[in-house]
Design brief:
mainly alpha, about 65% helix
């Protein structure tokens, strides 16, 4: 594995993806830096799909936690960390958001399900919300309120991804919904592994979509966010609209937007 593999575009921002266009419309000088941040999160979340044994998964996650500390100390081992290390220095990035992303992955390894709306919001803020904060910092944003808007924008995107992937997550017995919402519909994460019970997904997803829309930060502060965050949020809003038009029929299929449509949305948003 060579360092160049983690430059833009990379496996975390492949051609045609929402992540790709969010970086593509960023300033050229920042594209490799943003792609490295995306790749770091991607490597951690890949553990969830690649490792079934929780003990082994936590060991791999622990290695990445240590590697983050080594990169911060100027002693990275992995090619990705060697690309990330100067990004940490150049933008003076704090380690706390990276650790939050790792904490969220560990919660998912241990199948810790958000209990209620507040817990779900916190879960999303610690994952894509933390990533969006790091990307905002790469653009020189330091104001606390603007960093909070970046967090909220990332958390909103995280909610849309949960909705899009709900069928696949249900089949694997992973939590896409908060526990109290499932109880309201007489369901559980385990119950949704059965095909017959997944027929109730549309009504669950309709409620989750309404909450996702309500969580998106207002237009005025969002307009001050970097293009990379705005473009991704705009693409995911269009995706959410598409899922709604399909009646949230996601139990056994995955719905996405075409690369051309993402490109058009990204171009329009970047021109604002």
């Amino acid at each position: 594995m060579m360092r160049e593999e983690w430059l833009f575009p990379n496996r975390a921002a492949p051609l045609g993806s929402s992540a790709y266009y969010s970086v593509r419309f960023a300033a050229p000088r920042l594209r490799h830096d943003l792609a490295a941040l995306l790749a770091w999160r991607h490597q951690l979340r890949a553990i969830l799909d690649q490792v079934s044994d929780p003990g082994v998964a936590r060991l791999k996650l622990y290695w990445w936690r240590e590697e983050l500390e080594r990169a911060h100390a100027g002693e990275p081992r992995h090619p990705l960390s060697q690309v990330l290390q100067p990004v940490l220095e150049r933008h003076r990035l704090p380690l706390a958001p990276f650790r939050e992303i790792a904490d969220e992955v560990e919660d998912e390894i241990l199948r810790r399900q958000p209990a209620d709306e507040a817990a779900l919001a916190d879960s999303c803020r610690r994952d894509l919300g933390a990533l969006f904060e790091l990307m905002a910092r790469c653009h020189g944003i330091a104001d606390a309120s603007e960093l909070e808007t970046a967090r909220r924008l990332g958390a909103y995107c995280g909610r849309v991804y949960r909705i899009r992937d709900s069928g696949a997550l249900a089949r694997k017995g992973r939590a896409a919904f908060r526990a109290d919402l499932l109880r309201e519909h007489g369901l559980s994460t385990e119950a949704l592994t059965a095909r017959a019970r997944r027929g109730k997904l549309p009504e669950l997803l309709a409620a989750a979509a309404a909450e996702a829309r309500a969580s998106r930060p207002p237009a005025e502060p969002t307009a001050r966010q970097p293009a990379c965050g705005r473009v991704r949020a705009a693409i995911l809003t269009s995706l959410l609209d598409e899922l709604e038009r399909a009646g949230f029929d996601l139990a056994d299929r995955r719905i996405g937007l075409t690369p051309l449509r993402k490109l058009w949305i990204g171009w329009l948003e970047s021109r604002k």
